[in-house]
Amino acid sequence: MPTFPIPDIILKSIYELKPEKLTEMGIKLLLMDLDNTLDKYHAQYPTVRLRNWIDGMKKSGIEPFIYSNSHGDRAERFARSLSIEYINKAGKPRTKKLFALMKKKSVAPESTAIIGDQIYTDILCGKRAGIKTIAIRPIDMSNPWRYVRYRAEMPFRYAYWLRTKKEEKKD
Hints:
Strand 2, helix 2 and strand 3 form a beta-alpha-beta unit. It is built from six helices and six strands; from the N terminus they run E-H-E-H-E-H-E-H-E-H-E-H. By secondary structure, the chain is α/β, with parallel strands linked by helices. The chain has a single domain, classed as Rossmann fold (3-Layer(aba) Sandwich).
C-alpha cells in the first residue's frame, strides 16, 4: 500500500509550533530538519529567536533533535550551539536511521514528530515511519529550483487543506 506524504499539520514556520501542542499530542522527541526549516541555507549559527524556541521545547520536556540530510559540519555546529543532538546525512525519506534513533532513545513512533519544509523528504520519511508530521513553508524561496520543488509539493499541501476543511465541517 503506497504512503502518501500528506502532513498531519501545516504551519507557516516553526515558531507557530508551541510546546503545549506537542505535549497534548504526547510528543517527546521532535526531529527537526535544518535547511530552510530551522534557518536559511548556509546560515552558520542559530539566531537568538531559534535558541529561545529550542529552550522552550526543552523546558516542556520535549527533546529537540536536528535530523538533517545536510553534509559537512553545519548540523553539528547548530546542534552544539543549541546544546542538542543531531544526525546529518540522515538519508530522508529512508527510515533506517530514524528507527535506529527511536530505538536508541527508547521513544515509540507515537511519541515522535518530525518538522520540515520538504514534503518528499521530511514528511514522506515521517509518514513511512508512522510518526507525526509537521510541514512548514520554506524560509527562503529565492532559489528558483526551490520554488519549482515547492510547487511540485502543492498537491499534498492542498490535500491537507481539503482534509482540514472536511474535519471542520464535521465539528
